[in-house]
Amino acid sequence: MALTNPAFSTNPAFKDNGQTQTATTLSAENLQQMYESPAATSTQTDRMTVEDTINKTAICFALLVAGAVVGWLVPVLAIPAGIIGFVLALVNIFKKQPSPALVLSYSAVQGIFVGAISMAFESIYPGIVIQAVIGTLAVVGVTLALFASGKIRASKKATKIFLIAMFGYLAYSIVNVILVWTGVTSSAFGLSSDVKIFGIPLGVFIGVLVVIMGAYSLVLDFDFVQRGVKNRAPRVFGWSGAFGIMVTVIWLYLEILRLLAISRD
Question: How far apart are the C-alpha atoms of 93 and 3, rounded to whole Å?
């Protein structure tokens, strides 16, 4: 399966190693060596679990909310927090060994950025933040429930479609930003607001598609976490799982926030 979330794609702990194991016949000498070998240390037996990853994710969310309060009160921190958060994201993605401190720092700093952006939207569209929060929680909750019940799973075909859609959305976003910066379009949302289909802004259709993409990205994240557990990855890799989920949820929230703003316009 193609890998998507960079928080998982660069990490060997979440690779698909297959489920087939080759049986090995042990000689008496091999058995004796195993018997005489020292017992496994606590580090070697302390493995990643779904429950522990959920706990780590909850801690990250708590820091995200705390950071969001700071960003809401001091919105001027949006730009520096956004830059620092982006750098921390890159460090966490390419760091082979997960660092709890870096993952927690990312959550707190991104919280400041999200809080500041939310304050800006709320000042223009009163009540939009609570709507975006409820929408995000609903998408995450429904996706998690469907995944836990086994009613939805990641597949190779769906992942290929997801990747194509992601590249298409990325290309559209780049073009749209260029048009806004160059003054070709006067709207803050560019083509998303200016172009209308049956009287409905193009951004609404794209926003709905992106929310669906975000939900499927969560399915992939949950799948990667399960894969890490099956691979018996060390417990510290639960922080990688938490980081990956945080990246997706933050992206999902910002997209829902933008979708609501475009629909109000």
Answer: 13
Q: Point out the least confidently predicted range of 161-175, 189-203, 210-224.
A: 189-203
- From the list 116, 27, 132, 131, the residue with the least C-alpha distance to 79 is 116
- What dihedral do alpha carbons 77, 81, 84, 90 form, nearest 10°? -160
Residue 48 and residue 233 in contact, taking contact as beta carbons nearer than 8 Å: yes
**What is the SS3 assignment for 13?**
helix
Which ranges constitute the DSSP H helices of the chain?
6-9, 28-36, 42-45, 50-73, 78-94, 100-124, 128-148, 156-181, 191-194, 202-230, 238-264
**Pick from 90, 48, 6, 14: which is nearest to 239 by CA?**
48
Determine the average pLDDT of the residues in 36-43.
50
Lowest mean per-residue pLDDT among 30-39, 60-69, 131-140, 229-238: 30-39
From 168, 188, 170, select the one nearest 179 (Cα to Cα).
Answer: 188
Render 209-229 in DSSP notation, one character per residue. HHHHHHHHHHHHHHHHHHHHH
* β-bridge mates for residue 47, sequence order: 234
